[in-house]
Amino acid sequence: MLAITLVSPDPAALLAALDAVRAIAPVKVETRLGEGAIDLAVEGGVGAAALSVMVRVAIGSRPVDFAVQAVEGRRKRLLIADMDSTIINVECLDELADFAGVKDRVSEITERAMRGELAFEGALRERVGMLAGLSVDALQACYDDRVRLNPGAETLVRTMAAHGARCALVSGGFTFFTTRVAQAAGFHVNRANTLIEESGSLTGQVGEPILGKEAKLAALLEETAALGVTAAQALAVGDGANDLAMIEAAGLGVAYRAKPIVAAQAHAKVDHADLTALLFFQGYRADEFAS
Predict the structure, then answer these.
(1) Cβ distance 255 to 238 under 8 Å?
(2) In whole angstroms, how far apart are CA 46 and each of 61, 70, 168?
(3) Which residues of the chain are modeled with pLDDT < 50?
(4) How far apart are CA 215 and CA 133, in angstroms?
(5) What backbone torsions phi and psi does residue 75 show, to the nearest 5 degrees?
(6) Residue 185: per-residue pLDDT
(7) 39 flagged as catalytic
């Protein structure tokens, strides 16, 4: 039994997509999960990958996000999430660079690294190097003034935690931000890089080893092993190239407002709805969400 989950902030688009999917798939049961989310149970026929292609074609350009997966085991035991531009609204390093007067230069490198055009570790060292001399007071000012949880982030994390899932925030950014974001959203644990400071200013160096793509994958494998489960029982979400390994390894890997290299490889994309779409994809009903 496969589940097709359709999620959209546009009611008319959702209904049109529903009609289009009904026309190409043998739907057995329809369940309204909440406002803007419908779950369709499909039995027999093609596998999940082939059905996903059919659903994508049927939906076309409508602003509807979807996931196709086996019904069994779709409620995950681990959530492992990227932070910048996924759980929060900004790239923290780019915003710190604004305080240092070098945002344009840093943002260009960030964009290329997220697209997979540059090696993450080297790109991180280069960008952090441009922050040398910046007062550490800028970190708190950046957090207070610019960092906000993305819509649905706290509901996603606290709902999964309330239903027994382990929630881990893993970032190629910095522990100064991940510790605060993890507490605000309800994550159990966070992992990130460390900015080195001296006499109240940043030195322009980052602690080694650098947490990048392979470290994010390692975090997924370590967390699932500690839970006594497999990667198939994990949900990973991110937007940049350094998230790709964990997204590909997870049972459900989701690209959130992601770069093309990530969106092309993820099991599902969220381009229109908020992060509660990841709960609907797992079959949660809105009345099960943590308040």
Answers:
(1) yes
(2) 23, 12, 34
(3) none
(4) 28
(5) -80, 115
(6) 98
(7) no
Checking DSSP bridges between strand 166-174 and strand 65-70, what pairing results, if any?
unpaired
Q: Per DSSP, what are the bridge partners of residue 174?
A: 193
Element at 48 (helix H, strand E)? helix 48-59
pLDDT of the residue at 239:
96
Q: Which of 149, 147, 192 is nearest to 171 (CA)?
A: 192
Q: How far apart are the first and last CA of the chain?
A: 31
The pLDDT value given to residue 46: 84
Q: Name the catalytic one among 39, 82, 239, 243.
A: 82
**Extents of the domains making up the chain:** 1-72, 76-291
- Is residue 271 flagged as an active site residue? no
Half-sphere exposure of 281 toward its Cβ, with a 13 Å CA cutoff? 30
Class of 76-291 per CATH? alpha beta
Omega of the bond prior to 209 within 30 degrees of 0, cis?
yes
Record the pTM.
0.96
What's the one-letter identity of residue 150? N
Catalytic entry in 39, 65, 84, 94: 84
- At the topology level of CATH, where does 1-72 sit? Alpha-Beta Plaits (3.30.70)
Per-residue DSSP letter, 135: B
